[in-house]
Amino acid sequence: xxxxxxxxxxxxxxxxxxxxxxxxxxxxxxxxxxxxxxxxxxxxxxxxxxxxxxxxxxxxxxxxxxxxxxxxxxxxxxxxxxxxxxxxxxxxxxxxxxxxxxxxxxxxxxxxxxxxxxxxxxxxxxxxxxxxxxxxxxxxxxxxxxxxxxxxxxxxxxxxxxxxxxxxxxxxxxxxxxxxxxxxxxxxxxxxxxxxxxxxxxxxxxxxxxxxxxxxxxxxxxxxxxxxx
Length: 229
Known about the structure:
Elements: H1 2-33, E1 35-47, E2 50-61, H2 64-83, E3 92-94, E4 98-101, E5 116-126, H3 129-136, H4 141-144, E6 149-150, E7 155-157, H5 161-186, E8 190-199, E9 203-206, E10 214-228
Antiparallel strand pairs: 1-10, 2-5, 2-6, 2-7, 3-5, 4-5, 8-10, 9-10
Protein name: SIMPL domain-containing protein
GO biological process, one term: DNA damage response
């Protein structure tokens, strides 16, 4: 009789252990099915630290030698204007002139009165952003020297992203956690461990169209948290 009782007791004990194990597994699956996806935003306004300023002008004429001398004179005047106002020679590049021969172009308009035109550009690339902004307000002085420049696109850049990345990522993560905590509080839950986390691409855009030298840096982190009772 005893020989039958012992196996039965062991079987019952095994079933009890199995029941607890299954319940724990089911509870764990149910727990892991409860999660919340949140996004954390971090933004910074920064000043541009690099600027590219092309100073472009054109001349027209019928004698290439005379025009070449005029181009050389204009370029010297522009470079002198820049260097005498705080721009270093190594921050200035004089691009090769782009000549157009209207006389040899059979499709040229008859209204063009000259045989040749030459487009020229002197480019400033510098970290002296404030100095360039100052000179932009004074570039009309070149008109007094007979240089009819055209308004060109000025490219402002921010190159210090790596210096602020760690702080911005930490801020985005903190904001994501705050959003998860709020969701958990509203649903009578607690925030558990992180299931997955992904960092979005950093973007650098103009703060607005009138201040291209002020940049807005932005990043969004997406995090999935488990929720606990």
